[in-house]
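Bit of a strange request maybe. I'm writing a small parser for structure token strings and I need a real example to test against, not something I typed by hand. Could someone generate the tokens for this chain?
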Amino acid sequence: MNYNQLKIMIDDEIKGLKWSDNIVEEASYYALKEGKRLRPVLLLAFQELFQGNLKEAMPYAVALEMIHNYSLIHDDLPSMDNDQFRRGELTVHAKYGEDIAILAGDNLLNRAFEILFNDLVNFENPKNRIKACHYISSASGMKGMIGGQVIDILNSAEDEKDILEMYNMKTSALIKAACIGGTYLSGKLEYLEFAERYGENLGLLFQLTDDLLDIEQDKEANKTTYLSFETKNGLLKRLDELEREMKSNLEKIDYDTAVIEEIYLKMLQREV
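Reply from user aminoacidic:
Good idea to test on real output. This should exercise your parser:
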């Protein structure tokens, strides 16, 4: 399957969930409805890459998308980035108010783990699924996404090493969780090291490309980025190195990597 086919599957799954008739659920669904689905598509793509069952991976894909979107709701809050628009639409706090936005984010995080644990209790032999769940939860917390956000908020990166650590936590963590989660669910554990390295590089590629596109905006905001410690040419060289390593790693995999390559190319072209 290609990217768009996997995305449609995820969109349909999210639409098919039961959403109760209250404003927090409405705001939660509003946050989910227009996503590009990069992380859940990546999880399904890795599951499919190693010939796993897409239907069995779907709860993990949906949960990962909920975790990602809860983080976006909270990132957009006035006390954080104070953004009024996302994906061309009002942010959740701009549309529903800050109080409802906080609860909507909390709700998405809670529903994500409800979905994951519901899968675990209903699966006969959940060992690898437990490992996938554990990795996703760890990547979402202080060892990953939240920890990276703390470094960003405190603006505490003092050198290139610090900024790359922040990117690895804040941006790469959930992307790695998608790659590793899909690999765990496929049962092909011998490819975990490949999945982790590929996810880390993909996340770094994503963030460094953002730095390149947002040079002037970041300067105006006095935001610390990779370009605070490296030249533009140095960043371009790093991107080239990442691309070469990712292509080389894909060539070593004895499976059809077409969808994984499609995701990588879409990311380079900023289509996801």
